[in-house]
Write a structure and sequence with these properties.
It contains 6 helices and 7 strands, in the order αβββααβαβαββα. With 227 residues, the protein is an alpha/beta fold.
Length: 227
């Protein structure tokens, strides 16, 4: 029997429950240590390659007028890290990715906290006004929206498939003295394996909550969200 690691017991719990919970707690401790180790390895990565061009994205200014912003412009003074999430949004259609929507629904509420430490924006290969209409319908008021409809960002950073289908990529860029480097990408997405890639689970609170329940995630990987 795994020993007790603390002195807490819940009302009415049985000895069998506590024994099983102790085993799980030991596994949770081991997982937490591994997560911290992986995070340390990620932070220790050398800088990746310089960006091949200073991509010009379509965006909207404060007056709602369409304008251009370069990737280099996304770095606020004193913040040398940029997180870009590639959102799946088919141009000029109603085909919106419910999984991407769920992710940004979660991140939109903490956008101001993210911006205390880093630069954050989401990119879709769809016209900016179409993307903005979706954002307004979801109340993503503080999220910076970018359109890669007229540049090669999606192709260069693997946010598009061979058939032209969009892919929900996540990438980190860093600003250095010699230019802007790619730092990290969610490469679990590209590994051929029989399970869902779970490449951005760490920023996706919904699935992490489901994982704590007896029902788990279920077999349907798309959240039940109405648009």
């Amino acid at each position: 029997m795994t020993k007790n690691l603390h002195d807490k017991t819940y009302p009415g719990e049985t000895a069998d429950y506590r024994a099983a919970r102790n085993q799980l707690l030991q596994a949770e401790l081991e997982l937490d240590a591994r997560v911290q180790k992986v995070a340390e390895m990620r932070r220790s990565l050398p800088d990746g390659g310089l960006i091949p061009e200073d991509y010009a994205f379509d965006t909207l200014d404060g007056a709602g007028q369409e304008t251009k912003v370069h990737l280099s412009d996304l770095f606020a003074t004193g913040k040398d890290t940029l997180f870009l999430y590639s959102f799946m949004l088919a141009p000029d259609t109603q085909n919106v990715c419910p999984a991407c929507t769920s992710i940004i629904d979660g991140l939109s509420g903490i956008t101001q906290h993210l911006r205390d430490r880093l630069n954050f924006a989401i990119v879709a290969k769809a016209p900016i006004n179409q993307f903005d209409a979706l954002a307004r319908s979801r109340n993503w008021g503080d999220v910076k929206l970018l359109s890669s409809f007229n540049n090669d960002y999606n192709d260069d950073y693997f946010a598009v498939g061979a058939s032209g289908n969009q892919i929900p990529a996540a990438n980190i860029f860093v600003k250095r003295a010699d230019g802007i480097h790619h730092f990290w990408g969610a490469e679990l997405l590209y590994v051929d394996r029989p399970t869902h890639p779970r490449h951005v689970d760490q920023i996706w609170p919904m699935w992490n909550v489901f994982d704590m329940t007896p029902e788990g995630r279920g077999t349907d990987w798309f959240p039940k969200i109405s648009y």
